[in-house]
Design brief:
seven-stranded mixed sheet, elongated, 45% strand, 23 strands, disordered C terminus, Arrestin-like_C, 2 helices, five-stranded antiparallel sheet, 375 residues, mainly beta, single chain
Length: 375
């Protein structure tokens, strides 16, 4: 039996315009992005001669909408495209690009009109920096939105009662294939020691899924005269706001203080486990998260994958991860640290082919099951 098709529906307050979409997650495959399609339902009597437009926008927000410093708002529009859907500028049948649109048009009748957008190839994915529990207002984020509104013209003043907005997400999934398992090997010489300290660290694979345990293989050969008092491992998230400041925020999202020691002339071979998940970091301000829809849970931000040739400066927030292995080296008087880093990727697993990601609706949306839940 085929899975039920859920339709996302939202209607403006004066009932003149409604938006119907088959999905709200759109996949960026690096070389291509899912197009945005849906149907607009209009009420000609409620419109009273006004036209209907639909826009797709991408906005980078780094402050509340009501904040304004020297005339500069804390938001930047990265992309905006507008289409007129009513009165239609072309034959309705020519505007149909997907099966879901065709089925919705048959169900909703002659006052429904299709819309279709294609993403440019240089837009970032949905990502947000987690606010502190006491923070108010909208968070620093890259957001996508479909907005339908009625007005006398595209540039005329738009009434809130005649506007409907639906948040979207642009997401990336882990590519097929395991890739090369990362490994790092380094040697440290000490002034008062004839022989060095040798450390090798490696991972099982390059790409890990959200919620998956990262296994770190550590091999320490201590030929020095120094005593290794402790070994500490952590996963660091590096979020770089590249659009306006190029600031980097390094946040530890999981740590393992092993307490393991390695005496002079001894060796250690051990596999450590780390689990970087949002559940253990919910109260921490500034951690990057994958974009989310209202009242829906999310996860730590996925590693940013960029197509070759695209400028990083327009990506909004770039995210990467590294596993750090730190050795506390003790001496007769004081101690020092010796660390090495391994770059890894944290991504969402792609859903099985033929299945759409399940996205809960926000409180203002309504779920429409057409023909008993099946289109």
């Amino acid at each position: 039996m085929s899975p039920k098709n859920v339709i996302f529906k939202k209607i403006c307050k004066d009932k003149s315009v409604g938006v119907y979409m088959g999905k709200r997650d759109f996949v960026d495959r690096v070389d291509s992005v899912d197009p945005v399609d849906g149907v607009i339902l209009v009420d000609p009597e409620a419109l009273q001669g006004r036209k209907v437009f639909v826009t797709l926008s991408c906005t980078f927000r780094y402050g509340r909408d009501d904040m304004d410093v020297m005339g500069i708002a804390f938001r930047r529009e990265l992309y905006l495209s507008t289409r007129q859907v009513y009165p239609p500028l072309q034959d309705r049948e020519k505007g149909i690009h997907t099966k879901i649109q065709a089925r919705l048009l048959r169900k909703l009748g002659h006052n429904a009109y299709p819309f279709f957008f294609e993403f440019p190839d240089n837009l970032p994915c949905s990502v947000a920096l987690q606010p502190a529990p006491h923070d108010v207002g909208k968070q620093c984020a890259v957001e996508f939105e479909i907005k339908a509104f009625s007005a006398e013209s595209q540039d005329a003043k738009v009434r809130k009662r005649s506007t409907v907005k639906l948040m979207l997400r642009k997401v990336q999934y882990a590519p097929e294939g395991e890739g090369t398992a990362p490994s790092v090997e380094t040697t440290r010489d000490f002034v008062m020691s004839d022989k060095p300290l040798h450390v090798k660290a490696s991972l099982d694979k390059e790409i890990y899924y959200h919620g998956e345990t990262i296994k770190v293989h550590v091999n320490v050969t201590n030929n020095s005269s120094k005593n290794i008092k402790n070994i500490i491992l952590s996963v660091d998230q590096v979020a770089t706001v590249v659009l306006y400041s190029n600031d980097s925020y390094v946040k530890c999202v999981d740590i393992e203080d092993s307490g393991d020691s390695v005496s002079p002339g001894a060796t250690l071979q051990k596999v450590y486990k780390l689990l970087p998940v949002l559940a253990n970091n919910r109260e921490r301000r500034g951690i990057a998260l994958d974009g989310k829809l209202k009242h829906e849970d999310t996860n730590l931000a996925s590693t940013s994958i960029i197509r070759e040739g695209v400028l990083k400066e327009v990506m909004g927030i770039m995210v990467s991860y590294r596993v750090m292995v730190k050795l506390i080296v003790g001496g007769s008087v004081s101690h020092s640290t010796f660390q090495t880093n391994i770059i890894c990727s944290l991504l969402a697993a792609a859903p099985p082919k033929g299945l759409k990601p399940q996205v809960p609706l926000d409180e203002c949306s309504k779920m429409l099951a057409v023909s008993g839940g099946r289109l």
